[in-house]
Amino acid sequence: MSMLTPPGMGGKYRITGNRYPHMRRPRNRRRIALAVVGAVVALGLVGWGTVQLIDVFTGGNSTAQAAQDKQGRSDGCAKSGDRPRARPVTLPKPGEITVNVLNATPRGGLAKTTADELKSRGFKVGKVGNASAEYDKKVKSSGLLLGAPAAAEGSLKVLGTQLAGAQVKSDGRKGGDVDLIIGSEFKNLTPKKDADDGLAALSKPQPTPSGAKKC
Fold this sequence. Notes:
Elements: H1 29-58, H2 62-74, E1 77-78, E2 86-87, E3 98-103, H3 110-120, E4 124-130, E5 143-147, H4 155-160, E6 167-170, E7 178-182, H5 192-203, E8 206-207, E9 213-214
Parallel strand pairs: 1-9, 3-4, 3-7, 5-6
Antiparallel strand pairs: 2-8, 5-7
């Protein structure tokens, strides 16, 4: 046994010659790797938090919002602030409309009383009498408004404010006059105040599509 061998130690710990054993602990590579990963994660969290704080105080989402608005424009979508343009509506006045009042019911006197009421409301009155065989006792609603196709969005629409529940139909006539054919469910014309409100509503400008759709 060498003089360098500690007392009580032998075998593989026996020191011989001039070589000394290295007693240092082995390196723990796994612990080092975990420490490196933890440091990287910590730095990432710190960086993310810094970015969030910058967004809060500087309004960092404005760029994303601008991009979204631009995309909406390119897709044809309208922003909430876009409003459709309004166009004026030109309708004939009651004094410019000639109405023929015809009775298609078995009740007598309805055509004259209805014509007088329409006249008092400013309409011109044409023929007053009984409906033709084509419509006599065949109109089941409150009435039928009949005129040329061109009158559908003009005279007939104005006349429709005077009789609620009336049907509207076009025929092949060439003139500008229109017919109010009284039907079996007719009781009275629309109250004048309600009719005037309906006329006012028709005269208001109607919005037209701006060409953009909502998203």
